[in-house]
User: Which sequence fits this backbone?
């Protein structure tokens, strides 16, 4: 610490710290103002200006407040290696994912990929209050993903999910149905779970196959079904 | 950089009897002694090595014949995932860390590491992480998505069970252990070198430790973030890697390999350091081109962050990226070659004594060359399109990690065994171990080159009979059991030598570095007097004078020459003993806190209440330990300066 | 610390290390270097996910620049308070230390309060963690930064109470300096986040 | 006590044993390896082969030199009891260091130059006249669509000889990797990405391939075959695939099978033109014309198909196709029906 203590003599005075703070304040103000200057954005100058200003602020805080300018240069190396690598990784990753040359490009949605759009589903659920406490039944989100990825969409449609077959019932308004399984069972979570566990046992010859689901999957699917508006 | 020189051993305050026993279970649980922690690391990792080995043997049994029926598909997938994860994170890394712990302070002439309790914490976190990630076996849901766990196979719809949760949370815990450990060793090496030990006078093993720890510090945050994103995907239904939500599974691949490639060097560099210690000792010559070996290590580390996409040549990144990453990958071959040439240069003109550790070091070079050359073969992206994800790759990285890292580590174990135990390892059994290992590993892994080129993909639990892979797979399996046999020989040798080995003395190998100047096993405080270092291979020069050339009359091997430590070992009187940090309960409690924090999360999708309770418990443990730690003085309060108070010791 | 306690107090007034630098200072700087990679990965993730949300709400609809500018200022100024606290203890002014520490923690809490307000507003406008990629990457990035600020505030308050009990004297200025380094780091990370997440638009 | 064998006889026995081993090895090498990577059938494969040979022989050369020198050093400089004192304490030689830095670098440039050329050649846009094929990886089977021909098939890729096939690789679930070793290198199949790959098969014949990216439980069972045909055969195949499926005569077993198909859950997942429109599993319109079933792990024989229909997850662990608990009669009828869908 000897070198460190001797270095402290050169640390800025308190008024120096305040001057630095004023500079930081000004730079941030310029940044925010620049943000609102439309021509800068049109000329593609906003990003370089903002990045430059924030780099200056970064260096100012690091140099004066963190004493990098005054303390041992070794600290600069320790921190600088991490910082340089960090910047490199961000830039390389953006390059490799085409974010630098074509920024903000959304992915092409591929029609073979069953799209589950949680939000659309949620928007449709607005104003819909589930009949049961879904959380106590299972996990709705998991149930939805399961419904899409494990083949249920082969036969069933559900609100908020693109595609879906028409062999089995459309699952919209599921909770409003008085019965399930073609009238064999009452529409309660317990009955749905029983049905999903082994449809053939309840209604021999039904088109709905036994999908060998485990308990968790059954609960999540049930919760999902009751979440449908 | 040594602007201040530590004074020669100050006879300090008399140590009072410790608050804890010096032997027995509790002394190990509360220890902060770097040597004991090293032994804990080593033995834990070795037990896990056996576990990972058993996993490998079951896989080899399954694949010995086409349409194998030993295990089913799901079990096999768990086996190879856990084999990879175990061997990388729970075996090779911690075995290296065991050596960092035991050897580095001895080689730099320090009494302990910079942050002894942090060091203990690192071990306990590692142990709990290792237990956590293996918990899956108990309920039959061990991780099963491969050690690089490519998204979106790890996302909920495709990984419904707890398998991946064990993996994500377990690795998260292990990452904490690695970061803590590497912070500690970084500071130790930077700050605790003996007076006169400039950076370029540090032994290569210390250098490689330093480089490895820098790599860990810079690489592990990336996997931490990647795992966090996956964790959010799995527990809080974000869509970072979920294609249906617009996420990009390839981002995981990028993040994983930004971490994963430096990780490969984290595995191999310590072994390279060990070999660089063993070869000079048994050649009785200094390391050829010490500076170049060091610089090439640094170059490898530097390049390692710029080559990650060579794991992704088949991912379709485009020709420019493929070409760029191909160049940077090929570039790595240059410093690696420099190292190999320097090692051979070290032996050239020497007087080679083929002790077991020397055999392993030579075996390391011989096998690592094969792994390195096959590495160059798939640095060419088009060629890699045929090799990627086949047994050719499996062969390649086993030559690097078994033939390289593990052979180096075995060499290190034989080399430093006398230092740690005070007894010599049995040479006959050691050589049997070596030759069985060589035979077994080549029998196992060399044919994989052929099966790979014959189109056998990795990670398949079965294959049909008409593919032409049967014979070589059987050979692989025979080889795997030969390796198992060699490990049994090794275990027997260690047990036997521990009890009946010849007494080693301070310097049985006529070593060159500081650890050989002190008794075996070293006293609690390592150096009664902190040595003053005047050159590279300081101990050798102290023994033989000048630059060592003067030694014309074969030195007596078992009697240490007059060195800095004439008075240690024998008397064990307290007044010569520096006061060492006291044991502490807090590290293990803090690690347990982390364990429960992770354990609780497992219940989030099914029993949220369980999550809150267990996490709250873990958090309470963690915070208690944290505050207990901050207010606990490093030494018992009888020491004068501790009584003077260190105030709020923010962090250790 | 092993070395500091190996010899009587007079000798360990300054810890003797190979570089002449304190262990804990080296540790802190190394840790911050490592943290750079942590935040870099999060920022890289944010940048890669930028504009890939399949549905709204989108950033333009939610981000309130004037509001965030104010909380940015409060975090920036807290850095000033922090250096003043350090300067105070370095001259042995424990009272000054306590005042400036409190001011730092207060401004930090103000920032956190702003963040809580902002998050609540976003959620009310329909942006949750699971809504879209913007929500996910925004909440994870700023949330982890907020967690760092929270830890910093707790640390500062611990120092404040320790100072109140007279446990921090001039010779313990290192403890304050370490907390300061961490605090400034959190500040500069915010400088980067403010620019990249809030101001840069494409 | 038995007589110890003489040295010579021991030597002879070792020789015989070694010879036996050698013959065994040769026998093993001579085995058929249908999925080998070192017998390319496309220009793309030839390029890869060229690089493989280049790097392989460079590696072998370096291997022999370095390992040879290592062995030489190990034998030459072993310590002798007669030696006293330490050997010359050589610390290094900068000139040597420079030499052994530059020589590998030059060798690597020798590999890098053709590598770069081949990277850009093979990843150039596909030729204009190529046949577009959309490959969709599913957990654990392959879907092949020919958008210009209006044909969809599964696991069995038919290609005309000599014509470039331009693959567009997509995934329906997780990452896979499309790999037909004899026809060129693999390319990963990544959700939300469309990867490109093209090559022209040179010879007529059938060659196997399989998924090369770990994709879950039955990754090992995600196989496929490529059937390279003459232009005429290929056109004929396309015509057959586009035709409406055969209508089983009333009262036949196949007709009964169609009834079973139509009243079972089959229709939810499978398409048979005119019968069902399921999109989850493979298109079965012409399943009878294929030679393999269940992503190439069983052949398309009535026995194998019956085994598959009775309990799919038992044949292919983790299979999305559930066990429908069909009766033996239903299974037999279904087999008759499906086999009739030529």
Assistant:
């Amino acid at each position: 610490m000897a070198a460190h203590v001797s270095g402290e003599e050169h640390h800025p005075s308190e008024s120096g710290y305040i001057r630095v703070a004023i500079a930081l304040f000004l730079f941030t103000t310029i940044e925010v103002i620049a943000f609102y200057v439309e021509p800068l954005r049109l000329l593609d100058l906003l990003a370089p200006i903002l990045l430059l200003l924030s780099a200056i602020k970064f260096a100012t805080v690091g140099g004066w407040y963190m004493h990098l300018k005054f303390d041992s240069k070794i600290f600069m190396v320790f921190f600088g290696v991490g910082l340089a690598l960090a910047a490199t990784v961000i830039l390389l990753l953006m390059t490799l994912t085409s974010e630098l040359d074509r920024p903000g490009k959304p992915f092409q949605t591929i029609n073979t990929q069953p799209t589950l759009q949680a939000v659309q589903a949620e928007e449709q659920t607005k104003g819909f209050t589930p009949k049961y406490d879904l959380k106590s039944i299972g996990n709705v989100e998991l149930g939805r993903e399961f419904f899409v990825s494990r083949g249920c969409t082969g036969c069933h449609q559900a609100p908020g999910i693109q595609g879906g077959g028409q062999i089995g019932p459309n699952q919209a308004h599921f909770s409003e149905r008085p019965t399930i399984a073609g009238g064999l069972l009452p529409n309660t979570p317990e009955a749905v779970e029983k049905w999903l566990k082994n449809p053939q046992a309840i209604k021999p010859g039904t088109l709905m196959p036994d999908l060998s689901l485990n308990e968790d999957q059954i609960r999540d699917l049930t919760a999902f079904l009751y979440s449908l508006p | 950089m040594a602007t201040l020189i530590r004074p020669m051993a100050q006879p300090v305050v008399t140590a009072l009897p410790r608050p804890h026993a010096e032997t027995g279970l509790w002394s190990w649980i509360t220890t902060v002694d770097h040597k004991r922690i090293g032994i804990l690391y080593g033995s834990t990792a070795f037990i896990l090595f056996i576990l990972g080995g058993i996993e490998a043997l079951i896989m080899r049994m399954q694949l010995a014949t086409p349409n194998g029926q030993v295990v089913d598909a799901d079990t096999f997938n768990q086996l190879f995932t856990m084999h990879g994860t175990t061997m990388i994170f729970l075996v090779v890394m911690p075995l290296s860390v065991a050596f960092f712990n035991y050897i580095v302070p001895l080689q730099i002439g320090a009494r302990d590491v910079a942050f002894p309790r942090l060091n203990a914490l690192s071990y306990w976190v590692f142990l709990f992480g290792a237990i956590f990630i293996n918990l899956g076996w108990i309920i039959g849901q061990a991780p099963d998505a491969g050690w690089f766990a490519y998204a979106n196979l790890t996302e909920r719809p495709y990984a419904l069970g707890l398998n991946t949760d064990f993996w994500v949370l377990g690795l998260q815990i292990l990452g904490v252990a690695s970061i803590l450990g590497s912070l500690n060793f970084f500071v130790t090496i930077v700050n605790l070198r003996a007076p006169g030990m400039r950076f370029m006078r540090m032994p290569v093993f210390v250098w490689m430790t330093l480089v490895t720890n820098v790599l860990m510090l810079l690489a592990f945050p990336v996997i931490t973030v990647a795992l966090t994103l996956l964790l959010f995907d799995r527990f809080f239904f974000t869509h970072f890697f979920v294609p249906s939500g617009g996420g990009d599974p390839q981002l995981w691949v990028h993040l994983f390999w930004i971490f994963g490639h430096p990780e490969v060097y984290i595995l191999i560099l310590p072994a390279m350091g060990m070999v660089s210690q063993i070869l000079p000792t048994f050649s009785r010559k200094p390391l050829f081109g010490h500076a170049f070996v060091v610089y090439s290590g640094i170059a490898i580390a530097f390049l390692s962050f710029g080559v990650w996409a060579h794991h992704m040549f088949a991912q379709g990144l485009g020709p420019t990226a493929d070409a760029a990453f191909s160049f940077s990958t090929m570039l790595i071959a240059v410093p690696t070659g420099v190292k190999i040439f320097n090692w051979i240069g070290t032996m050239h003109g020497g007087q080679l004594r083929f002790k077991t550790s020397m055999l392993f070091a030579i075996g390391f070079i011989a096998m690592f060359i094969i792994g390195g050359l096959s590495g160059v073969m798939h640095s060419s992206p088009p060629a890699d399109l045929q090799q990627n994800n086949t047994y050719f790759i499996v062969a390649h990285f086993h030559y690097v990690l078994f033939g390289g890292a593990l052979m180096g580590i075995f060499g290190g174990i034989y080399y430093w065994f006398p230092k740690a135990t005070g007894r010599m390892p049995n040479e006959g059994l050691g050589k049997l171990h070596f030759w069985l290992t060589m035979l077994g590993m080549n029998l196992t892994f060399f044919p994989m080159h052929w099966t790979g080129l014959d189109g056998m993909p990795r990670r398949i639990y079965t294959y049909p009979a008409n593919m032409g892979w049967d014979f070589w797979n059987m050979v692989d399996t025979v080889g795997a059991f030969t390796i198992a046999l060699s490990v049994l020989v090794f275990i027997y040798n260690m047990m036997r030598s521990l009890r009946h080995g010849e007494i080693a003395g301070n310097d049985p190998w006529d070593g060159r570095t500081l650890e050989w100047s002190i008794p075996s096993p070293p006293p609690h405080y390592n150096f009664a007097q902190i040595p003053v270092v005047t050159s590279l291979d300081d101990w050798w020069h102290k023994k033989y004078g000048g630059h060592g050339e003067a030694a014309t009359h074969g030195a007596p091997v078992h009697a240490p020459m007059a060195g800095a430590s004439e008075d240690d070992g024998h008397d064990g009187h307290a007044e010569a003993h520096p006061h060492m940090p006291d044991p502490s309960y807090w590290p293990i409690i803090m690690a347990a806190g982390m364990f429960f924090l992770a354990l609780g999360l497992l219940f989030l999708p099914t029993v949220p209440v369980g999550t809150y309770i267990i996490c709250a418990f873990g958090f309470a443990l963690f915070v208690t330990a944290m505050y207990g730690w901050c207010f606990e003085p490093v030494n018992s309060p009888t020491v004068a300066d501790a009584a003077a108070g260190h105030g709020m010791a923010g962090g250790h | 610390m092993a070395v500091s306690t190996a010899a009587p107090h007079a000798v360990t007034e300054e810890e003797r290390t190979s570089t002449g630098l304190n262990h804990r200072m080296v540790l802190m700087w190394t840790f911050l270097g490592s943290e750079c990679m942590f935040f870099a990965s999060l920022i890289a993730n944010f940048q890669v996910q930028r504009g890939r949300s399949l549905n709204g709400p989108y950033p333009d609809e939610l981000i309130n620049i004037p509001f965030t500018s104010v909380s940015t200022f409060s975090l920036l100024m807290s850095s000033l308070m922090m250096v003043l606290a350090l300067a105070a203890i370095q001259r042995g002014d424990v009272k000054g230390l306590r005042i400036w520490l409190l001011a730092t923690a207060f401004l930090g809490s103000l920032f956190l309060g702003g963040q809580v307000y902002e998050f609540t507003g976003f959620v009310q406008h329909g942006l949750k963690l699971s809504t879209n990629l913007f929500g996910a990457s925004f909440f994870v990035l700023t949330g982890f930064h907020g967690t760092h600020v929270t830890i910093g505030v707790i640390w500062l308050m611990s120092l404040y109470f320790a100072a109140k009990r007279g446990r921090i004297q001039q010779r313990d200025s290192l403890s304050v300096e370490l907390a300061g380094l961490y605090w400034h780091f959190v500040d500069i990370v915010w400088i980067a986040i403010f620019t990249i997440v809030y101001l840069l638009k494409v | 006590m038995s007589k110890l064998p003489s040295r010579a006889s021991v030597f002879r026995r070792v020789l015989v044993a070694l010879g036996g081993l050698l013959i065994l090895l040769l026998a093993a090498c001579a085995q058929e390896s249908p999925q080998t990577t070192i017998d390319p059938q496309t220009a793309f494969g030839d390029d890869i082969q060229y690089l493989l040979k280049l790097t392989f022989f460079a590696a072998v050369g370096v291997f022999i030199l370095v390992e040879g020198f290592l062995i030489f050093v190990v034998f030459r400089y072993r310590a002798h009891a007669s030696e006293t004192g330490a050997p010359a304490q050589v610390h290094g030689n900068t000139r040597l260091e420079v030499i052994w830095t530059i020589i590998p670098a030059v060798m690597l440039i020798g590999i890098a130059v053709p590598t770069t050329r081949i990277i850009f050649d093979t990843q150039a846009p596909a030729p204009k006249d190529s046949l577009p094929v959309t490959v969709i990886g599913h957990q654990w089977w392959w879907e092949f669509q020919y958008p210009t021909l209006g044909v969809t098939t599964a696991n069995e890729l038919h290609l005309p000889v000599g014509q470039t096939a331009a693959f567009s690789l997509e995934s329906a679930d997780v990452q896979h990797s499309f790999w037909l070793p004899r026809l060129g290198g693999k390319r990963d199949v990544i959700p939300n990405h469309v990867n490109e790959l093209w090559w022209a098969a040179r010879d007529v014949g059938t060659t196997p391939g399989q998924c090369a990216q770990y994709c879950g439980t039955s990754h090992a069972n995600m196989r496929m075959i490529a059937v390279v045909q003459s232009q005429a055969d290929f056109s004929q195949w396309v015509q057959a695939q586009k035709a409406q499926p055969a209508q089983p005569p009333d009262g036949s077993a196949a007709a009964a099978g169609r009834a079973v198909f139509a009243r079972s859950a089959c229709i939810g997942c499978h398409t048979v033109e005119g019968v069902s429109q399921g999109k989850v599993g493979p298109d079965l319109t012409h399943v009878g014309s294929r030679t393999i079933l269940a992503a190439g792990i069983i052949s398309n024989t009535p026995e194998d198909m019956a085994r598959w229909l009775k309990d799919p997850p038992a044949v292919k662990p983790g299979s999305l196709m559930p066990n429908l608990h069909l009766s033996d009669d239903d299974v037999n009828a279904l087999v008759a029906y499906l086999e009739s869908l030529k």
Observations:
- The first helix of chain B runs from residue 25 to 29.
- Chain B has one domain: 30-545+579-583.
- The mean pLDDT of chain B is 86.
